[in-house]
Amino acid sequence: MADIYIAYASEDRIRVEWLYKLLALQWETWWDDHIVGDFAGVIENEIPKAKCLVAVFSESSRVKSTFTDELRLAQKHNISLLPVRLDNSDPPYSFGGYSYTQLHDWDGQFDHPGILRLKRSIATIVPSKAKPLRPVAIANSKVPLPSLFMSVSSHETQLIPAEAVEALRAFNAPTILVSAFDLVERRKPQKMIAELEQYRKNGGFILVDSGNYEKSRLGSKHWKPNDLKEALAHTPHDWVFAFDTMNTKHNPDIAIEEILSGVERDKTFTTAPVLPIVHAPSRKRGGYKLETLPYVVREISSRLHPPIIAIPERELGAGLIARAKSVRAIRDELDNLPYYQPLHILGTGNPWSIALLAAAGADTFDGLEWCRFVIDRDNEKLHHFQHFDFFMNQSATQPFVKEALADPNIGYAGKVAFHNLDYFSEFMSMMRGMFMGDKVEAFLIGLFGKKAIAELKEQFPELLK
Known about the structure:
By secondary structure, the chain is α/β, with parallel strands linked by helices. The protein has two domains: 4-125, Rossmann fold (3-Layer(aba) Sandwich), CATH 3.40.50.10140; 137-464, TIM Barrel (Alpha-Beta Barrel). 40% of the residues lie in helices and 14% in strands. The strands form four sheets. An eight-stranded parallel sheet has the order 12-11-10-9-8-15-14-13. A five-stranded parallel sheet has the order 2-1-3-4-5, with helices on both faces. Strands 6-7 form a two-stranded antiparallel sheet.
């Protein structure tokens, strides 16, 4: 007995196979590729046993009597019909009254809004039999998972923002985060914007932060949502973090409404996706109230369906293992949804933190470590920026970086940046490969060492089951 029966025209077979493979990850799904022998007999037997029928409307299927016969058989047996449309052709006669999911621009991506909507509709009829799996990439495959956005900021870094973007462009870093704080006119951002335009033209992916990080660090009282609006008006970008409310209400339902309201406001500033940031409410005696955080994140996902939802790392707990446990609690709650919701951790650029939080269920990160510290790539630990003298002879993996490190025209800060970027590029690529190969524990042992992993297993045994 199948949860889902897919009815379609043979001309649409390629896209229907994509659909089948996606749905089959979470439900018992049937399509006529399973038929051996008598087509009509098998179909007449399968449709009455299905819990719902996904009807693929298209220019081809609307004129097929065999297709409409399947739909009428489903109606006869009170099987729920969930139409999807692959193009803008009219539905088959007598089936135009059904609500449908539009997939005319879908080319297989898991996070297409129509696919998410279809999964939600299916889940109201039959619960998913498996938790959703982390996809290989999101944003039309531009952002692989897990992924690190190299952050750019004017606050306490060794490179001014325009120079940082120039270095990231030269390195071909795939994803970067820039702050709206550095992009308003009063900051004279023309050179930085020119670099961003070239970076995006070369295929780079730009995430714009609200600027509230710099506001909070500098104690600025004059940074408002309209400043974000001004920055977005002349800055190339693919995604935007909403102008977040950092003093979160303790009542989770009020907090949810505030977050939703902020995202809706900021959607008027741009045509790009606006991503929510969820803050944990602070306690009077220090620390953060984390009990309701998983619920809030799940509700935000359920109501907004954003490409990612962000949470500041510092609000997830005092220590790294406590933070990993918080991430796992959030991921466990998100796994109750019929689709995979990517989770972003703000302010995480330390390799140990990235690896452990990714193992716990986080997907994307951003950090300034690449332009604040120097990495000892042999031991995978961060050191003071001025300690590069002791690590400058460590082997670079990319020819471009080897040339840059030997170039007398590139200054000290630039050489450190390229050294770090080379490491992080290799680190993220290796981590993705190990995670995809279900070798998470082996990767963590190589990074932390066996002693630290033994401690991790004692304090967080469910992480590496």
